[in-house]
TrEMBL record:
UniProt record similarity statement: Belongs to the HMBS family.
Cofactor note: Binds 1 dipyrromethane group covalently.
Protein name per UniProt: Porphobilinogen deaminase
Domain Porphobilinogen deaminase C-terminal: 230-304
Pathway: Porphyrin-containing compound metabolism; protoporphyrin-IX biosynthesis; coproporphyrinogen-III from 5-aminolevulinate: step 2/4
Catalytic reaction annotation: 4 porphobilinogen + H2O = hydroxymethylbilane + 4 NH4(+)
InterPro entries assigned: HemC (IPR000860), Porphobilin_deaminase_N (IPR022417), Porphobilinogen_deaminase_C (IPR022418), Porphobilinogen_deaminase_C_sf (IPR036803)
Record-linked Pfam families: Porphobil_deam (PF01379), Porphobil_deamC (PF03900)
Species in which this protein is naturally found: Tibeticola sediminis
Subunit details: Monomer.
Length: 309
């Protein structure tokens, strides 16, 4: 195996969160003795701010331009929020490593109310994801709150918080991980436990993508990988893959590892909002990612047997 170049280039989006994540990887690699430069780029997903992502092409939107930089040799690595990474990468690319997960939970941000329970009459809640919309709707239905409206909320984290602060929404729901990474943890009014609002596959984890032929990078990246996170996200992503996962499907999948046992929960919502929310769970002793994926496939089959398409 050839050794890694002593200087590495990380392709990254230029949102504050993406840059934080790239800097985080840079610091880890520097501590291992590598020189690291960042190559900032704008992706289509960053440019389209007026439409719901699921309508314009989904997860790949944030990844494509970075892959072109990898393919052309302008960059060695691309750092992604794992939940934005498609389940199957295009030919020629590989997910080289998944790092230890930050808080995987969703967060409630509001100056007006402490949670769903005390939303004012007719309140508007903002969220960017179909999964959150479907799970929020289910909670609101349980609470008998047909007066509350859920409205789309796009843009990077700062934009979303600004829209909240301007009063367009009574509350918004975001990933806790992004807020914490940017030092905005104090904005979190409460976090939803996974049994209240099940996170998205890979939420809170960072993935590093490389060109599949770059075996010279494997040794450099090995120390950044987290084995427990890898098992969890392998199961979560397998659920999504088995159901043909895309942003236009409201799907949640979340796994925790305790001892050698992986516990996986998943939920599927009808994009049209007609069918009821479906839930499935499973657990297994797992020692490798193939066993974790097998658990994911089983849980996905359970959802499909209940009617998930
Ligand atoms: N879809 C955008 C996105 N991708 C990753 C995160 C947060 C960080 C993470 O989950 O790792 C966010 C923002 C959000 O969902 O609020």
């Amino acid at each position: 195996m050839t050794s890694a170049p002593s200087s590495l280039v990380i392709a990254t989006r230029e949102s504050r969160l993406a840059l934080w994540q790239a800097e985080h990887v840079r610091a880890r690699l520097q501590s291992l003795g590598f020189g690291v430069e960042l190559l900032g780029m704008t992706t289509l997903g960053d440019q389209i701010l007026d439409r719901t992502l699921s309508k314009v092409g989904g997860k790949g939107l944030f990844v494509k331009e970075l892959e072109v930089a990898l393919a052309e040799g302008r960059a060695d690595l691309a750092v992604h929020s794992l939940k934005d990474v498609p389940m199957d990468l295009p030919e020629g690319f590989a997910l080289a490593c998944v790092m230890a997960r930050e808080d995987p939970r969703d967060a409630w941000v509001s100056a007006v109310c402490a949670g769903l329970e005390d939303l004012p009459a007719g309140a508007v809640v903002g969220t960017s994801s179909l999964r959150r919309t479907v799970l929020l709707r289910a909670r609101l239905a349980e609470l008998g709150r047909s007066d509350v409206r859920i409205e789309p909320l796009r843009g990077n984290l700062d934009t979303r918080l600004r829209k909240l602060d301007e009063g367009q929404y009574a509350a918004i729901v975001l990933a806790a991980a992004g807020l914490k990474r940017l030092g905005l943890g104090a904005r979190i009014r409460r976090v939803f436990e996974p049994d209240e609002m099940l996170p998205s596959a890979g939420q809170g984890a960072l993935g590093i993508e490389i060109r599949a032929d770059r075996h010279d990078l494997e040794a450099a990246l090995a120390p950044l990988a987290d084995a427990a996170t890898w098992l969890c996200v392998s199961a979560e992503r397998a659920v999504s893959r088995a159901l043909g996962g895309s942003c236009s499907m409201p799907l949640a999948a979340h796994a925790v590892l305790a001892g050698g046992t992986l516990k996986l929960s998943a939920a599927w919502g009808d994009p049209e909002g007609v069918a009821p929310l479906l839930r499935a769970e499973g657990s297994a002793e797992v020692g490798d990612s193939a066993q974790a994926e097998a658990l994911g496939v089983r849980v996905a089959a359970d959802l499909r047997a209940q009617g998930a398409r």
